[in-house]
Amino acid sequence: MRLRLTATLLAFATTVAFAADAPQKVKSMQEIIDAAPATDWRTLDPANTLYMQLATGRVVIELAPDFAPEHIANIRTLAKEGYWNDLAIIRSQDNYVVQWGDPNSDDAAKKKPLGTAKPKLPVEFERKAKGVPFVRLPDRDGWAPEVGFSGGFPAARDPKANKAWLAHCYGMVGAGRDVAADSSDGSSLYVVTGQSPRMLDRNITLVGRVVQGIELLSILPRGTAALGFYEKPEQHVPIKAITLASEVPEAERAQLQLLRTDSQTFTTLVESRRNRRDEWYKRPSGHIDLCNVPLPVRAAPSATKPAG
């Protein structure tokens, strides 16, 4: 009887081991996204969306008023009053950032007036964590006690200190400042185009992220002056306009949807990226960095289906 039981267990173990070693069909990132229900997607809010129009196309930026309300209010005012129209991209630093604003900002006699926007804003490097939606990643982070996503933005928090802040991941947009912490007015903005400079977290106010068109910025020629600034005016990249989406006719808006970071689909997607099991990968890493988590964006499905 004991021999039969041992043989049965051995056969069972062999079957399990064989099944574990057998190739398994793993869903690709695109297959996971394609299977997401409509409720797992959210539509960009026109009141919190900027369009930067370049000669090469449109860059779409989602703003983050929950983390930087004073800066976002000023940015909305600047956009509505056409502040950035006909200004320029003035800096492209390799593996770091692209920055835009007034090339004459340091010359009081030549710089462009801010209109009715505030000339001085409070520091908004972080905010209270209590009450902030937060989907935590289980992975360790070298820059914060906890990291995850808040309202679709990569974020970090310190529960003991009751603080939360946005993280400097690729595509995040921030407000440039001088040495003084409160020297930003939101008129000079930058986007991260290099490896995530997380040392900037809680040192500069982050105001949003690029959700479409980042390639139009990341491929710009690198500036050769200090910090990647362009040395000559003719090197500046003209900005036709920066406009709030809510000020653009609906027919001309970018019809985009973003995968909700609080959805089951997003959780499944993160796990698929944390442990890559498709044929090419030979060793799952068991870890994912906050800034390596993809944030899917898609064209909104048509409201009407074609006949037939």
Most strands sheet: 9 strands, antiparallel
Strand content: 15-25%
CATH topology (level 3) name: Cyclophilin
- Work out the helicity level: 10-25%
**Chain-averaged pLDDT:** 91
Q: Low-confidence parts lasting 5 or more residues at pLDDT below 50?
A: 1-23, 303-308
Following the backbone from N to C, one meets helices and strands in this order, namely HHEEEHEEEEEEEEEEHEEEHE
Could you give the topology of this structure?
Layout (H helix, E strand, L loop, with lengths): L1 H20 L7 H6 L6 E3 L5 E6 L2 E7 L5 H12 L7 E5 L4 E5 L25 E2 L6 E2 L9 E5 L2 E6 L4 E4 L5 E4 L13 E4 L12 E8 L1 H5 L18 E2 L2 E4 L11 E4 L4 H11 L22 E3 L9
